[in-house]
């Protein structure tokens, strides 16, 4: 089974790119972020025609998350993160799909730092950590996938010295991610590529993609019962080179049956 996460940066504006990637990669389950579309504007018909059922949590102009599946309709179990300090933001959705529990998330950016946006990011991270602990306590096979807006280590950012003041690389944020992993989650991409330079995001500015000046901020975390089934974990980085594409590339894992 192939499970992917993809920050589409506008599901309607990037719909041709999304549909092309779905057709060529054929992931079984996909978590999308930054839909930037209200609930009624999600392109359900086009997604359905591509062979995917979907649930989504939309928001006009900003945020928005979705779960797509071609291996059975997602059965929604949660919409919104418990304890979210600002539930008006559409940042979390959760569903049972084909024997797995899938949590799709879009963690706040947090810039500028310091300030209220950074405080919100830390509070949201705390709420995620609390909910993740409850998910692990359930004993269910869980994947937490999405745009975490954090580079966990120096390996995950081009020229880390340039990012010391950024909310995505702040010590408090990296420490929160480490606390999350310490619960027992496996960072799938890093687990299979422990020493490689692997990025999932390249800014539109300063020719970042051509220079490979990237960040690794999109992560798939596996619960302990799923970690032994991890077979592959990759980034479809060529998608980042397509016309009118997102500044993120899709990331996916393959699990043994």
Give a summary of the structure in a few sentences.
Residues 4-248 form the Endonuclease/exonuclease/phosphatase domain. The chain is of the alpha+beta class.
- Based on helices, strands and strand pairing, what is the structural class? alpha+beta
> What is the H/E string?
EHEHEEEEEHEHEHEHEEEE
Let me know the average pLDDT: 98
CATH topology annotation: Deoxyribonuclease I, Chain A
Class, according to the CATH hierarchy?
A: Alpha Beta
Overall strand count: 14
| CATH architectural type | 4-Layer Sandwich
How many helical stretches? 6
N- to C-terminal distance = 7 Å
Biggest beta sheet attributes: 6 strands, mixed
- Fraction in beta strands: 25-35%
Structure description:
- This protein has 257 residues and is α+β, with helices and mostly antiparallel strands.
- It has one domain: Endonuclease/exonuclease/phosphatase (Deoxyribonuclease I, Chain A).
- The strands form three sheets. It has a six-stranded mixed β-sheet. A six-stranded mixed β-sheet has the order 5-6-7-8-12-9.
- Its cofactor is Mg(2+).
- Keywords: Hydrolase, Magnesium, Metal-binding.
Main attributes of the structure:
6-stranded mixed β-sheet; Deoxyribonuclease I, Chain A; alpha+beta; 257 residues; 26% strand; globular
Show the helix and strand layout.
Layout: E1 2-7, H1 15-25, E2 29-33, H2 44-49, E3 53-57, E4 65-69, E5 75-79, E6 92-97, E7 100-106, H3 116-138, E8 142-147, H4 171-182, E9 186-187, H5 188-192, E10 201-202, H6 208-211, E11 214-215, E12 218-222, E13 230-235, E14 251-255
